[in-house]
Amino acid sequence: MRSGGWFGRRGGAGRRRRRRRRGAKNATLTLADLQEGESGVVESLELPEDIALRLMELGFIPGTTVVAGRAGPGGDPRVYRVDGSEIALRRETTQHLLLRFLE
Amino acid sequence: MNSPLPESTTLQDYSGTDGLGTPGATVALVGPPNCGKSTLFNRLTGLRQKTANFPGVTVERHHGTVRLSSGKELEILDLPGTYSLNPRSEDERITDDLLRGKMPQVCVPDAVLLVLDSTNLGRHLVLAAPMLALEKPILVVLNMADELRRRGGDVDVEALSERLGTPVVLVSAAKGEGLEGISQFLESTFRAPEPVGLPVLQSPPSCRQWAGQVAAESAYRPPVAPVWTRRLDSVFLHPWLGPGVFFLVVVGVFQTIFYAAIPFMDGVEGLVTWSGGWIQANLPDSAVKELVVEGIWGGVGSVLVFLPQILLLFLFIGILEDSGYLARAAVIADRTMAKVGLQGKSFIPLLSAYACAVPAIMATRTIENKRDRLATILIAPFMTCAARLPVYILVIAAFIPSGPLLGPFLGIRAAALLGMYLLGFVAALVTALILKSTVLKSDRTPFVMELPPYRWPTFKSLGLRLLDRSKIFLRRAGTVILGVAVVLWILAHLPMENGQAPEIGESLAGTLGRTIEPVIEPLGFNWKIGVGLVTSLAAREVIVGTLGTLHGIDGDEASLGLQEALRQDLTLGGAVALLVFFAFAMQCMSTVAMVRRETGGWTIPILQFSYMGVLAYVGAYLANQLVTWLV
Fold this sequence. Notes:
The structure holds 2 protein chains of 2 kinds. Chain A has helices at 8-23, 49-57, 91-94; strands at 39-45, 65-71, 78-82, 85-89, 97-101. By secondary structure, chain A is an alpha+beta fold.
């Protein structure tokens, strides 16, 4: 088993990754970039078809507003408010959901 | 490598004939997860419902009878929750196949009750489109009417009914409001819905747009966001309070199981002792009396004592599940599960496995990814199921002194029990890690988890759940455990010499134990424990009954309690080894049979049984050596 913090390590990596993406030029904005309380409008789902369809059934349809909510330890997975319900998704999924930013 | 789960493994699960083969009409309950479908099912059927949990008998399938005021009886079938009729998980495939009549031997339902959450009608109405397209008689049941009103929402039922071309009712299954509308529909002659314009079913955006339009034309006013859910989540999903609460909940449950159950257990024990004494005093002396007192009362009685504890565990799991906390727990656990290649969704079957591996293995159907599902099936029997509790409690109470460890919060015995739970959990995690980094390696499945609003669990559904579990436990005590107790008692009394039963050590049971004694001696077990290990292959808790029977027969130890007797049989090393053996070994025929059914063959269960058996033997050997060396 790996040594080191059970929760701490990943959180650190996540923060670093986020900063990198925000700093990058012409970077696409994804759902993973939203902090708690921020919101965005779904632009497209860059995911395999079956996963994209499942997410659309849950409300992540292009044009829909998504609000980021609370998260599990270390910020992953995060709960998103979409179309009247709350759905928890992992970062590995949300970074393929492209957004138009609202606020 | 091909996925080891064939496409149609679980279809047979719904193919039982009882109730479904009868000429009376069958109505299917369909709805998305968290729409209150089970609550409605409980309302409609009450005590006239069946859950068959054991393979070979029937299969896990909720069905029941509803009796209308006119005397008409209908069969209601509760189908697994589904978001759409595009089957992507096993649960959805079952629903889809059954509705389309693609399931052999099962009558196609005559009508459908489509249960939707009225507090989120826009999204839930999406499921109405493919359902209407089936052109079956259908009643749309808008559930959670009380919550809708309380949070300021509203809907015009007449307009919605007009728009969908089929009757619609607004009910609260939890409060029991509006159910007469459902009775009316069930009384009526079923009619297919009037054709209405439907969207392109394969396109979620098109379906969602249609649902939004229908809702708007029915004057639907969505309710305001649930305030209490937000408030509770700010604690339960708080960055550090959340995991803290999670930990407290787990410790609290175990602490309560160990201590709060004691008065109830004493009650049951008193009843068993009293009734055994009554039989002893009132039956004429005969072999039958001996069989009843020693074999049945000693064997079955010592297992019955654990019913209160098992019910308490199921009560807690029921409360956690019905209140909505379990979904939050899955979010908190997801990161840890991801470390071993699994996901938060595996957490729910694994938590159910703390009660019993059989329903847990059924619950893995909600995991879409087949490899994740198989990995979860393979590790579920490591979780400390309720059948291990009697063994753990007996051994811990016999060998571990009572006393506080962390002030009033955690006693030594509760800590030892918690340690056993941890041991099983760690074994499961390590096994998952090995599986997911080798043979079951897969792309990470997306973790998608809907968090329902917090709700008060209803007494009715908790009560029905406990009743169900009691029935299963008692049925098992009355069949498997009773059978083993009787056979064992007879083996312990043969061969007869001059009409006298032999010394217990010379009997057939004793011979059996002595034959395997050389193999288990390195673990610190004697022949009596050996007999227990053999009988517990049927089910783990049988060992307690077996030891009860064996000690009841053995004159030298009959006067001692079972705990005292165990202290004569085992050293501390042997006791720890016994705990470790039970933590790892797959001594449960029901689980083996369920794995065979769910994986569609004998390969997986045989591999699993062997792996767990070897692990149990080696683990117990090491534990015995280590403790003996330490003490």
